[in-house]
Design goal:
The complex is a heterodimer. By secondary structure, chain A is mainly beta. Chain A has strands spanning 5-7, 10-13, 19-24, 31-37, 44-50, 53-57, 65-68, 75-79, 88-95, 108-109, 113-117. Chain A has no helices and 11 strands. In chain B, 0% of the residues lie in helices and 59% in strands. Chain B contains no helices and 11 strands. Chain B starts with a strand and ends with a strand. The chains are: A mainly beta, B mainly beta.
């Protein structure tokens, strides 16, 4: 399977704990995106990387959230001091950006990590 | 502010009963409109990209169309396996992120 993978698939944590999620993009894709989705809503953008550079961050991404993409391969999303409002599905997507082709705009999503904060 | 609105929120169809889902958008400059399918507990699955008004894309029982203000996802003779939430998203010239609507939850009954 050469799709986007995410780990873990499910995470239950207590309020105040730190959690870290991992995303492995499609191997030839240089762009990686993080989104958050709550029940009955569409995904909301959090941040994205081109290679190892973090190019955009949403206002939704508070100081408790940090994302990295060392060496431009996999990415991690860390949430510090979790709150109940952080409970959501965290989705990772990837895309490529070859010049001159529209197909570079298509983002392919992983299965998501379901976070429950108790 | 860039915005995407989908309607209806939920749609129940009998197997074989064709219908359309609507996605209206207000954006500063459209660089692409995307349709995704999402099954419960899973990530969105890419279906179509549309770039300019008048463009159409087809895949099996699905056909997506685009105007300057909205997109339609037409479902012809749906089957129970087409039951899912269908998400619409736009990409603008200002950013690489996708802006999603809240989706249409489709249920097809045999």
């Amino acid at each position: 399977d050469t799709g986007v993978s995410q780990d873990p698939r499910h995470k239950i944590t207590k309020r105040g704990q730190n959690v870290t999620f991992r995303c492995d993009p499609i191997s030839e894709h240089n762009r990686l995106y993080w989104y958050r989705q709550t029940l009955g809503q569409g995904p909301e953008f959090l941040t994205y990387f081109q290679n190892e550079a973090q190019l955009e961050k949403s206002r939704l991404l508070s100081d408790r959230f940090s994302a990295e993409r060392p060496k431009g391969s996999f990415s991690t999303l860390e949430i510090q001091r979790t709150e109940q409002g952080d409970s959501a599905m965290y989705l990772c997507a990837s895309s490529s950006s070859p010049r001159g082709t529209r197909s570079s705009y298509e983002q392919y999503f992983g299965p998501g990590t379901r976070l429950t904060v108790t | 502010e860039d915005q995407v609105t989908q309607s209806p929120e939920a749609l129940r169809l009998q197997e074989g009963e064709s219908s359309s889902l609507n996605c209206s958008y207000t954006v500063s400059g459209l660089r692409g409109l995307f349709w995704y399918r999402q099954d419960p507990g899973k990530g969105p699955e890419f279906l179509f990209t549309l770039y300019s008004a008048g463009e159409e894309k087809e895949k099996e029982r699905l056909k997506a169309t685009l105007t300057k203000k909205e997109s339609f996802l037409h479902i012809t003779a749906p089957k129970p396996e087409d039951s899912a939430t269908y998400l619409c998203a736009v990409r603008t010239y200002n950013t690489d992120k996708l802006i999603f609507g809240t989706g249409t939850r489709l249920q097809v009954f045999p």
